[in-house]
Amino acid sequence: MSMLTPPGMGGQYRITGDKYPRMRPRRRRARLVLSVVASVAALGLVGWGSLQLIDVFTGGGGTASAAGSAGDCVKQAAASASPVAGTSATVLPKPAQITVNVYNATTRTGLAKDTADELKKRGFKIGNVGNAPAKFDQKVKGTAILLGPATALKTSLPVLATQVTAADQRTEAGRKGAAVDLIIGNAFKALTPQATATKAITALSAPRPTASTTKKTC
């Protein structure tokens, strides 16, 4: 048997010529196909990752990103209207700076004097005390009428109103002087308890929050 005879052929065949039979199947084509598929898959992954990075850096977060921006805008708007944005205190006169005329519009005797004495104890200055003018006498069905000049609407009248529950505050055009009138009506029983009235005056003078004027763009 020749040295060139493949094992197992028992010497029945001889190899002639310059070509030899292949003992293994061809794999080059299969490897090429696998390489191409792997390359395509790798390029696909790289492209997908690039798109994700672009989406992140350009702010394309979809609904969640939009909701987050809206939430931040609401928080900024709420912060601009918070009390820390600024405060303003109302300057009101003290009871000792307010002169009160006490008039009785009811049929109960001595009501004006007793009320005037109590107001004096609470620090108010007392002016005239007596029966109410004809246009008010026995015509005030409520607790009382507080009457003063236009300048007293946001100064003396609110302070005096803390002493009389549910009093009707009014201004009189052309009225001279800074004194205010307390005209006692039929529903009047007594002045507001002093402790309650003092707390009410303190609340009137307390600083109030003001909203910021800074514009927010969202």
Fill in the keyword field for this structure.
218 residues, alpha/beta, five-stranded mixed sheet, two-stranded antiparallel ribbon
Q: Topology, please?
A:
Blueprint: H1 28-57, H2 62-80, E1 87-88, E2 99-104, H3 111-121, E3 125-131, E4 144-148, H4 156-161, E5 168-171, E6 180-184, H5 194-205, E7 208-209
Parallel strand pairs: 2-3, 2-6, 4-5
Antiparallel strand pairs: 1-7, 4-6
Short description:
The chain is α/β, with parallel strands linked by helices and 218 residues long. The chain has helices at 28-57, 62-80, 111-121, 156-161, 194-205, and strands at 87-88, 99-104, 125-131, 144-148, 168-171, 180-184, 208-209.
Q: What would you note in describing this structure?
A:
The protein is of the alpha/beta class and 218 residues long. Helices cover 36% and strands 14% of the residues. The chain is built from five helices and seven strands, in the order ααββαββαββαβ. The protein has helices at residues 28-57, 62-80, 111-121, 156-161, 194-205; strands spanning 87-88, 99-104, 125-131, 144-148, 168-171, 180-184, 208-209. The strands form two sheets. The protein has a five-stranded mixed β-sheet. Strands 1-7 form a two-stranded antiparallel sheet. Helix 4 (156-161) links the parallel strand 4 (144-148) and strand 5. The two termini are 94 Å apart.
